[in-house]
Amino acid sequence: MPDHGGLRLGFAGTPEFARAALVALAGAGFDIALVLTQPDRPAGRGMKLQASPVKAAALALGLPLIQPRSLRLDGKFPDDAAAARAALEQASLDVLVVAAYGLILPAWALDVARHGAVNIHGSLLPRWRGAAPIQRAIEAGDSHTGITLMQMDIGLDTGPMLLAQALPIAADDSAASLHDRLAALGASMIVDALPAWAQGRLLAQPQPLEGVSYAHKIDKAEATIDWSQAAALIERRVRAFNPFPGSSFTLGGETLKLWRARLAPGQGPPGECLPGPAQTLRVACGDAALDLLELQRTGGRRVAVADFLRGHPVVTGTVLGAPGG
Predict the structure, then answer these.
(1) Has this prediction a pTM greater than 0.70?
(2) pLDDT of 190-213, one tens digit each?
(3) Please, which of 68, 164, 173, 246 could form a disulfide with 80 given CB 3.0 to 4.6 Å?
(4) Parent domain of 244
């Protein structure tokens, strides 16, 4: 069994990104005394309550679990916050590990563990602080991103850094594919770093003052494609918003999702379908063109554009629109 320095952990996280770290820590033999995750949310077509990936993993691993609606003692759910504080204090934690939890941790929560709280963040800080670092890195055309392990303070991803490791962004990476690689990297890093940090062999370094940027939360309104934008930007946004919220446009009044596209030669009024190779849908953008590769009708499945065109031919000169426009 690896030497974990007798660390007693708490874990706070909600989505798949966090689940990967929780499973890795449990698999490495760490003592996980308490898991926090957000309350079950309605999801899917039936809008039934669904457990978070972290909750599902915690239950499968037999770990103690709480789901407070808030951790703010002066907030809307003070009873939840007080109960969570009591549970965390009773757990006698050495470290609180946080990964994409989704709730603000007040000062008391950051101090509840003997060594404080360490966050697994999906970027190379200080670039892309905030809620959507994976998507914003792709959208911006960054050549690489990575994982930063950060000692948390009361700021928004402003705490001193314990460890960082870079990861290249491939030309065809979507948010989904990059997320999976970053989740695996973060899980591996936290397992290796925690004992070294607790034993004083991993020193926290302040974040650089230069290069700060913020990864604002993805809004569903960003799904609408603006064909007057540069083709390269639209293509990056398609990948950045895959799987959520997806990128959409209208064809003949019907809203379609675009899941994959590639840069192509050609010019014309933005949104106009241009001549191109057989079984392709080439669309003019602000400076060049895009070949649309994978589409989805409302309520349908994703299909290659050639399959779509066999049932829904599109003539040259057709102008694609924006949903609601």
Answers:
(1) yes
(2) 999 999 988 888 999 999 999 999
(3) 68
(4) 220-311
